[in-house]
Amino acid sequence: MADNESExxxxxxxxxxxxxxxxxxxxxxxxxxxxxxxxxxxxxIRPVGLVIGVFTFMSGxxxxxRRRKFNYRPGIIVTVCGFFLLLANPRFGxxxxxxxxxxxxxxxxxxxxxxxxxIKLAWELGRFS
Length: 129
Description:
With 129 residues, this protein is an all-alpha fold. It contains four helices and no strands. It is elongated.
C-alpha cells in the first residue's frame, strides 16, 4: 500500500490548497464586479433597483436562516448589500447617496482585495519554482 500513495502527498504544504485560493480570488473579483453593476443599474432604474434589492435581501436572509457554518459570512454580506440596494433608491434622498457610496466602495474593495490576493499568490508561486 505504501508504494501506491498518491502524488499529492508529496506536494509542498504551502501550495497544497492552490485550487481553493484561486477560487477565492475569482469569487472576490467577480463579486465586486457584480456588486458594482447591480448598484449602478439599481440606482439608475428605480423599479429594477427595487426588484434587485428585494431579491438580494431575501436571498441573504434565506442564507442566514439555513444556519450553515459556511453560509454565515456570505449571508451577512448579501443581506447588507440587499438592504443598501433598497436604500440606494433615489427616493430616500441623503440616505440613498450614502448607501450607493458604501456599495461602490464595497465593490471596489472586493476587486482590489481579489487582485491583492492574486498578486500575493503569484509571488508565492514564483518563489517556489
